[in-house]
UniProtKB/TrEMBL annotation:
InterPro entries: AAA+_ATPase, DNA_repair_RadA, P-loop_NTPase, RecA_ATP-bd, Ribosomal_Su5_D2-typ_SF, Ribsml_uS5_D2-typ_fold_subgr, Rubredoxin_2
Annotated keywords: ATP-binding, DNA damage, DNA repair, DNA-binding, Hydrolase, Metal-binding, Nucleotide-binding, Stress response, Zinc, Zinc-finger
Membership in a protein family: Belongs to the RecA family. RadA subfamily.
Organism whose genome encodes this protein: Thermovenabulum gondwanense
Name used for this protein in its record: DNA repair protein RadA
PROSITE patterns, per the entry: RECA_2 (PS50162)
Length: 450
C-alpha cells in the first residue's frame, strides 16, 4: 500500500491535501513541501498519554520545583527568576548575534555544579573549544558532542544523564526515519517533540537554539513556539555592542522582562545600569531630544526619544519610525497638529528610540510629541528634564503606571526635574513633589518643558 502524502507550508506549518502556490494561512509563495504521512510517527510515550485516566484537579499532588540559578542575572530575570527543571526553552536570533556565545557561557556556569551536555550540529568540537578558551570556560562537568542524528543524541543523553541539555541548533538535527531533509517543517517539529518528551520524562531543562528568518520570525512552523515552555529572542544590531534578550512566551514568569548585554572580546557581559547605558552618547541641549522612562516588566528604563523634522520635497510628506509603532506615531503627530497649532503637512518627520529599545507602552506619548515639537521649533528642552505621560486624542495627558518607581530612576541618574500627569501626583511620596511638575494637557506640558 503506497504511503499517503500531504503538503505542508515550511513557513507556518499549514497542511493541505494538494500543492498550493500561495499559503492561505500566512500568505507566503512557493513554500509548500511534500511530506509522507506515517501512522506510526510519534513516540511511544505520547501514545500512552492518550489512554490516561481523568483525575480530579483537587487530588493531583504538586511538587514545587526549585529554580536553578544560571549564573547570568539578566537571563534569570527574563526567565522569571531562574531555570525551571524539566522545561523546554527556545532561544532565537539573527546569525552572529551571540546565541551560541550566550549558551556556551550558560553551559560553563551550570557546569560548575551540574552535568551539562552541549550538542552542536553546526560546529566541530575544536571550534567550540577555541571559543570556550576565549571565554575562559573551564567547567569540569561540561560535556560536548557534535551530532546531527536525533537517535544518537538521545543515546548520549541516556548515557550521560545530564541535568541540562543545550541543542545548537534545532534546524540542523534530523530524525533518520523521516524522509524530509534537516531543517524542514516535519524534521523541526519532530525533533522538538522528541526534545519535549526528554525534558518532561527526565526532568531535564533543554535549551533549543533556533534560527530566525529574514522576516524576524523563528524558522520552522509556528507550532514550534506553542510546543515549548519559553520562547526568548536575542535582538540587537550585529555590528553594535549591545544585545537585548526578550521573552515573548513564558509559562513560568512574565513576558515583559528584558535582559541587556554588551558584546565584548571575552563574550557577553551583563549591563548593570541599563538606563545609563541607553543614554550614553546623548548630546545635551539638542533640539528633538527628550528623555522618558519606560517600564519593562518590573524594571524602569530611561531612554532617549529623538525626532527630526525637515522640509519635504514631495507632495506627501514622509513619516518614519524606529523603535515605536508607526501607527501610534502618526496618531500623535495628528494630535500635535490639532492641539498645538503646528503645521507638519509639508514636513518629513522621523522618530527614533535610541539604543535599540522597542517602546510599546503609551507612557512615552508625551515625550514623542515634545520631541517633534522641539525639532520643528529648533528649540531644546530644559536641561535635566525627564518627561512621561499618555496623551489622548483631545490633547489631555493621562496617568502612567508605577510613577514613583519612574521618578526614583530619573533622580538616581542625575536628572533634576520630572514632568508627570497631574493624576499621578497623589501617588507620589511627599518628599518627591518638589522635583515633580504635574501637567494635564499639552499646552501646560509645553510651558513647563521649554
Amino acid at each position: 500500500m503506497a504511503n499517503k502524502k500531504k503538503f505542508v507550508c515550511r513557513e507556518c506549518g499549514f497542511e493541505s491535501a494538494k500543492w498550493l502556490g500561495r499559503c492561505p494561512d500566512c500568505g507566503s509563495w512557493n513554500t509548500f513541501e511534500e511530506v509522507n504521512i506515517k501512522k506510526d510517527n510519534y513516540p511511544e510515550a505520547f501514545k500512552k498519554s492518550v489512554l490516561s485516566q481523568p483525575v480530579l484537579l483537587n487530588e493531583i499532588e504538586t511538587i514545587e520545583k526549585e529554580r536553578v540559578t544560571s549564573g547570568i542575572k539578566e537571563l534569570d530575570r527574563v526567565l522569571g527568576g531562574g531555570i525551571v527543571p524539566g522545561s523546554l526553552i527556545l532561544i532565537g536570533g539573527d546569525p552572529g548575534i551571540g546565541k551560541s556565545t550566550l549558551m556556551l557561557q550558560l553551559g560553563g556556569n551550570l557546569g560548575e555544579n551540574y552535568r551539562v551536555l552541549y550538542i552542536s550540529g553546526e560546529e566541530s568540537a575544536r571550534q567550540i573549544k577555541m571559543r570556550a578558551d576565549r571565554l575562559d570556560i573551564k567547567s569540569r562537568n561540561f560535556y560536548l558532542v557534535c551530532e546531527n542524528d536525533m537517535d544518537a543524541i538521545e543515546n548520549c543523553i541516556n548515557e550521560i544523564n545530564p541535568n541540562f541539555v543545550i541543542l545548537d541548533s534545532v534546524q540542523t538535527v534530523y530524525i533518520p526515519g523521516l524522509e524530509s531533509a534537516p531543517g524542514s517543517i516535519n524534521q523541526v517539529r519532530e525533533v522538538t517533540l522528541r526534545s519535549l518528551r526528554i525534558s518532561k520524562e527526565k526532568g531535564i531543562a533543554v535549551f533549543l537554539v533556533g534560527h530566525v528568518t529574514k522576516e524576524g520570525n523563528l524558522a520552522g512552523p509556528k507550532t514550534l513556539e506553542h510546543m515549548v515552555d519559553t520562547v526568548l529572542y536575542f535582538e540587537g544590531e550585529r555590528y553594535q555592542s549591545y544585545r537585548i534578550l526578550r521573552s515573548v512566551k513564558n509559562r513560568f514568569g512574565s513576558t515583559n522582562e528584558i535582559g541587556i548585554f554588551e558584546m565584548r572580546e571575552k563574550g557577553l557581559v551583563e549591563v548593570e545600569s541599563p538606563s545609563n547605558f541607553l543614554l550614553s552618547g546623548r548630546t545635551k541641549n539638542s533640539p528633538g531630544s527628550v528623555v522618558t522612562c519606560t517600564i519593562e516588566g518590573t524594571r524602569p528604563l530611561l531612554i532617549e526619544v529623538q525626532a527630526l523634522t525637515c522640509s519635504s520635497g514631495f507632495n506627501i510628506p514622509k513619516r518614519q519610525t524606529y523603535g515605536i509603532d508607526y501607527n501610534r506615531a502618526s496618531l500623535l503627530i495628528a494630535v500635535l497638529e490639532k492641539n498645538m497649532g503646528l503645521f507638519l503637512n509639508r514636513e518629513d518627520v522621523f522618530i527614533n528610540i535610541a539604543g535599540g529599545i522597542k517602546v510599546t507602552e503609551p507612557a512615552a506619548d508625551l515625550a514623542v510629541i515634545l520631541a517633534v515639537f522641539s525639532s520643528f521649533k529648533n528649540k531644546p528642552l530644559l536641561e535635566g528634564l525627564v518627561v512621561m505621560g499618555e496623551v489622548g486624542l483631545s490633547g489631555e495627558v493621562r496617568s502612567v503606571s508605577y510613577p514613583e518607581k519612574r521618578v526614583y530612576e530619573a533622580l538616581k541618574l542625575g536628572f533634576s526635574r520630572v514632568i508627570l500627569p497631574k493624576a499621578n501626583l497623589r501617588d507620589l511620596d511627599a518628599k518627591l513633589l518638589d522635583k515633580v511638575t504635574g501637567v494635564s494637557n499639552l499646552i501646560e506640558a509645553e510651558q513647563e518643558a521649554f
